[in-house]
UniProtKB/TrEMBL annotation:
<dbReference type="Pfam" id="PF02575">
    <property type="entry name" value="YbaB_DNA_bd"/>
</dbReference>
<dbReference type="InterPro" id="IPR004401">
    <property type="entry name" value="YbaB/EbfC"/>
</dbReference>
<dbReference type="InterPro" id="IPR036894">
    <property type="entry name" value="YbaB-like_sf"/>
</dbReference>
<protein>
    <submittedName>
        <fullName>YbaB/EbfC family nucleoid-associated protein</fullName>
    </submittedName>
</protein>
Length: 133
Protein backbone atom coordinates (compact mmCIF):
# COMPACT_ATOMS: atom_id res chain seq x y z
CA UNK A 1 0.00 0.00 0.00
CA UNK A 2 1.17 3.53 -0.68
CA UNK A 3 2.34 4.99 2.61
CA UNK A 4 1.00 8.32 3.71
CA UNK A 5 3.64 10.57 5.15
CA UNK A 6 2.31 11.65 8.53
CA UNK A 7 4.26 14.90 8.44
CA UNK A 8 2.20 17.59 6.62
CA UNK A 9 5.43 19.45 5.85
CA UNK A 10 6.35 16.65 3.46
CA UNK A 11 3.04 16.61 1.56
CA UNK A 12 3.25 17.69 -2.05
CA UNK A 13 0.86 20.07 -3.80
CA UNK A 14 -2.12 18.28 -5.24
CA UNK A 15 -1.96 15.26 -2.92
CA UNK A 16 -4.78 16.47 -0.69
CA UNK A 17 -6.98 17.23 -3.69
CA UNK A 18 -6.23 13.78 -5.10
CA UNK A 19 -7.07 12.14 -1.77
CA UNK A 20 -10.27 14.20 -1.50
CA UNK A 21 -11.34 13.03 -4.97
CA UNK A 22 -10.56 9.44 -4.02
CA UNK A 23 -12.59 9.80 -0.81
CA UNK A 24 -15.53 11.24 -2.76
CA UNK A 25 -15.47 8.25 -5.16
CA UNK A 26 -15.35 5.84 -2.20
CA UNK A 27 -18.31 7.55 -0.53
CA UNK A 28 -20.29 7.46 -3.77
CA UNK A 29 -19.60 3.75 -4.11
CA UNK A 30 -20.54 3.10 -0.49
CA UNK A 31 -23.91 4.79 -1.02
CA UNK A 32 -24.57 2.84 -4.23
CA UNK A 33 -22.95 -0.41 -3.10
CA UNK A 34 -24.80 -0.64 0.20
CA UNK A 35 -27.66 -2.53 -1.46
CA UNK A 36 -25.24 -4.99 -3.06
CA UNK A 37 -23.59 -5.64 0.29
CA UNK A 38 -26.94 -6.12 2.00
CA UNK A 39 -27.97 -8.67 -0.66
CA UNK A 40 -24.97 -10.91 0.00
CA UNK A 41 -25.73 -14.27 1.58
CA UNK A 42 -23.41 -16.93 2.87
CA UNK A 43 -24.04 -20.65 2.79
CA UNK A 44 -22.66 -23.28 5.11
CA UNK A 45 -23.13 -27.02 5.50
CA UNK A 46 -22.32 -29.59 8.15
CA UNK A 47 -23.05 -33.23 8.98
CA UNK A 48 -22.23 -34.34 5.42
CA UNK A 49 -24.69 -31.83 3.94
CA UNK A 50 -27.53 -32.83 6.25
CA UNK A 51 -27.55 -29.38 7.86
CA UNK A 52 -27.59 -26.24 5.68
CA UNK A 53 -27.56 -22.64 6.88
CA UNK A 54 -27.89 -19.32 5.06
CA UNK A 55 -26.76 -16.07 6.67
CA UNK A 56 -26.88 -12.46 5.55
CA UNK A 57 -23.93 -10.14 5.18
CA UNK A 58 -24.68 -8.99 8.71
CA UNK A 59 -23.98 -12.52 9.98
CA UNK A 60 -27.56 -13.13 11.07
CA UNK A 61 -29.10 -16.50 10.23
CA UNK A 62 -31.75 -16.30 7.52
CA UNK A 63 -32.51 -19.97 6.95
CA UNK A 64 -31.77 -23.38 8.44
CA UNK A 65 -32.51 -26.74 6.84
CA UNK A 66 -32.04 -29.93 8.84
CA UNK A 67 -32.82 -33.32 7.31
CA UNK A 68 -34.54 -36.10 9.22
CA UNK A 69 -31.29 -38.05 9.15
CA UNK A 70 -29.49 -35.24 10.97
CA UNK A 71 -32.21 -35.28 13.61
CA UNK A 72 -30.97 -38.74 14.62
CA UNK A 73 -27.83 -37.17 16.08
CA UNK A 74 -27.70 -36.75 19.84
CA UNK A 75 -28.48 -33.21 20.98
CA UNK A 76 -24.84 -32.29 21.65
CA UNK A 77 -23.66 -33.46 18.23
CA UNK A 78 -26.60 -31.76 16.51
CA UNK A 79 -25.77 -28.49 18.27
CA UNK A 80 -22.08 -28.75 17.28
CA UNK A 81 -22.92 -29.49 13.65
CA UNK A 82 -25.48 -26.69 13.50
CA UNK A 83 -22.98 -24.24 14.95
CA UNK A 84 -20.34 -25.39 12.44
CA UNK A 85 -22.77 -24.77 9.57
CA UNK A 86 -23.59 -21.29 10.92
CA UNK A 87 -19.90 -20.38 11.17
CA UNK A 88 -19.24 -21.63 7.64
CA UNK A 89 -22.14 -19.57 6.31
CA UNK A 90 -20.93 -16.47 8.15
CA UNK A 91 -17.39 -16.99 6.81
CA UNK A 92 -18.79 -17.41 3.29
CA UNK A 93 -20.79 -14.17 3.55
CA UNK A 94 -17.76 -12.31 4.89
CA UNK A 95 -15.57 -13.65 2.06
CA UNK A 96 -18.14 -12.58 -0.54
CA UNK A 97 -18.37 -9.13 1.03
CA UNK A 98 -14.60 -8.69 0.98
CA UNK A 99 -14.47 -9.81 -2.65
CA UNK A 100 -17.16 -7.29 -3.57
CA UNK A 101 -15.33 -4.49 -1.75
CA UNK A 102 -11.97 -5.40 -3.23
CA UNK A 103 -13.47 -5.55 -6.71
CA UNK A 104 -15.37 -2.30 -6.37
CA UNK A 105 -12.76 -0.28 -4.51
CA UNK A 106 -9.68 -1.80 -6.11
CA UNK A 107 -9.68 0.90 -8.77
CA UNK A 108 -10.09 3.67 -6.21
CA UNK A 109 -7.78 2.64 -3.38
CA UNK A 110 -4.02 2.13 -3.57
CA UNK A 111 -2.82 -1.48 -3.77
CA UNK A 112 -3.35 -3.28 -0.47
CA UNK A 113 -5.50 -0.49 0.95
CA UNK A 114 -8.44 -2.79 1.54
CA UNK A 115 -6.41 -4.46 4.29
CA UNK A 116 -8.21 -3.09 7.35
CA UNK A 117 -5.31 -3.64 9.75
CA UNK A 118 -2.90 -1.81 7.45
CA UNK A 119 -5.30 1.12 7.13
CA UNK A 120 -5.78 1.34 10.90
CA UNK A 121 -2.02 1.21 11.46
CA UNK A 122 -1.39 3.91 8.89
CA UNK A 123 -3.98 6.30 10.31
CA UNK A 124 -2.81 5.65 13.87
CA UNK A 125 0.67 6.83 12.84
CA UNK A 126 -0.81 9.96 11.30
CA UNK A 127 -2.91 10.70 14.40
CA UNK A 128 0.11 10.12 16.63
CA UNK A 129 1.97 12.80 14.68
CA UNK A 130 -0.76 15.36 15.43
CA UNK A 131 -0.90 14.38 19.11
CA UNK A 132 2.73 15.30 19.64
CA UNK A 133 3.40 18.53 21.57
Amino acid sequence: MDRLDADPANWRDGELEKDAERAARILAWVEEGQHELEAITGEGEAADGQIKVVTGSDGLVRDIAITRRAMRLDSGSLAEELLAAVHRAQDDAERKGRELLNEALGEVLPAGASDVEAIEEQYARILDYFDRP
